Amino acid sequence: MFRVTDRAAVEQVTRTAGQVARLLGVAESTLRAWHRRYGLGPAPARPGGYRRYADHDLARLQRMRDLVRGGVLPSDAARVVVGEPDHLDPSQSLPALLAAVRDLDGGRCLALLERVLAGSGVVAAWERLCRPAFAAVEADQSADAARGAAGGCVAGEHVLSWATSTALRRRTAEGSAHRGPAVLLACTDGEQHTLPVEALGAALVERGVPVRLLGPAVPAESLARAIDTTRPEAVVLWSQRRESARTGPPHHPALLLAGPGWTTADGAAPLSSLTHALERLT
């Protein structure tokens, strides 16, 4: 398995201006202008070093970009961003996220999720914000069904799913370009629930572990071919429902089953949580 040897280095991930510009989809000259005019830049460089952007710097720049793209003047957007706290508590952000979901405002959801992810990390954001948000949406759906109005909250669930997936995949992208051995993440054939796998991928990348994410409903033959092609360090196979765990898992010496669809009868005890998965893989 992968072993993270320098926790401090992993926790303090930094990026060059070019990397940040690519992540944000803006020109490096735009970053320099925002830094020069509004003070939205990285911390001062150490002697003999280059300025590098930390996660909290990236979160502020993402917020700046989203406001400008939404039509706010850069000078006004900068005043908003500079006046906002760098860190958002995941649990305290839940009411704001649910308000955005009920307004069907995917952009607001995404901006909030990205700020929480950058400030608190994947595990805290997933356990204390994302999962409670989905539980609240499911509770609204149950209440609607009890009133005979089933389906009224489906659009909100889709907005939340899109924003969560987008935010997690953006954080996974940096580790997916790795060409060496990686952790291969996939869902069983017929399984469409990918968010827990995406959360695991983002959390692994955050810890310096490269990943390859295959996504939903991967046929057994395709998964076997992917294992043969990429020769992963480990394979995580997710099943949300028992029906999607009917196909026997592929052979791999470091295969880990994850999700409530699996039982101990399928092999080793399935991974029980995101934290459990990270303990096994890092």
TrEMBL record:
Keywords: DNA-binding. Pfam families: MerR_1. Residues 18-83 form the HTH merR-type domain. InterPro entries: Cobalamin-bd_sf, DNA-bd_dom_put_sf, MerR-type_HTH_dom, MerR_fam. One of its GO terms (molecular function) is cobalamin binding. This is MerR-like DNA binding protein. It comes from Actinokineospora auranticolor.
